Amino acid sequence: MRSDAQRGCTVGIAQMAAGAVRLTLTRMDDVDGLINRFSDSGPDVAWKLDALLDLELRPDPRVTALWTSVIVDSGEAPPVRAAALRGLRSARLADDERPLVARAIARVAADAGSAATQLRVQAALALGEFLAIEGVLAALGDVAANPTDNIDVRYAAFTSIERAGPIREGAACLRRLAQDEILGPSARHLLIDWRGDLLD
User: How crowded is the C-beta side of 162, counted as CA atoms within 13 Å?
Assistant: First the structure.
């Protein structure tokens, strides 16, 4: 027969496990509730920003998915998209989330027809944190090399390319810019600086 101490320990463990389950369910309900609150806010920017701020405190794949969908939604208000982008930049993303998030941010940065210039600037800068993801440097090169695009967006893309350091893909982007009227001098200067350090 088990002693009172053993029975007490078993009961205590069961209570702890039940408490953990309740806590997990509560957190899940909180996330669902905040996502629903965001979705039900309609055009109310203040409510949406408030919901996004609360979601920043709840790391969860569903939150990442919401932020990612918000930043690429051209019908969403720019301040809301910007808040979602900030959330993505500060989030601890899982390895399997990073490529999807990077592609979404690159899509925002590359949207030359968008009037949300500052959002695109922030997106181009954010891509500097995803340089190891395949295709990110090429996307930045395309943005920086577009002579008809906004110069602030182009320069933000150039800044992120510079963060890559002396690697082959980064140097290829700079060579595309070498004859650019505006960014060419900076690109050529950086290529000279990298010349002895280029890595495969």
Answer: 17
Boundary residue ending a domain (61, 92, 123) = 92
Q: pTM of the full predicted structure?
A: 0.80
Contact 52, 83 (CB under 8 A): yes
Pick the closest to residue 85 from 47, 45, 50, 56 (CA basis). Answer: 56
Residue 200 inside a domain? The answer is yes
d(CA 155, CA 191) in angstroms, rounded, equals: 16
pLDDT digits (tens, 9 = 90+) for 137-195: 999 999 999 999 999 999 999 999 999 999 999 999 999 999 999 999 999 999 999 98
Q: Residues 120, 87: one domain?
A: no
Same-domain pairing of 175 and 137: yes
pLDDT in tens, 68-87: 999 999 999 999 999 999 99
Residue 98 lies in a domain: no
Domain that holds residue 84: 1-92
The CB density around residue 7, as the number of other CB atoms within 10 Å, is: 11
CA triple 91-94-100, angle to 5 deg: 90
Q: Judge whether 125 lies within some domain.
A: yes
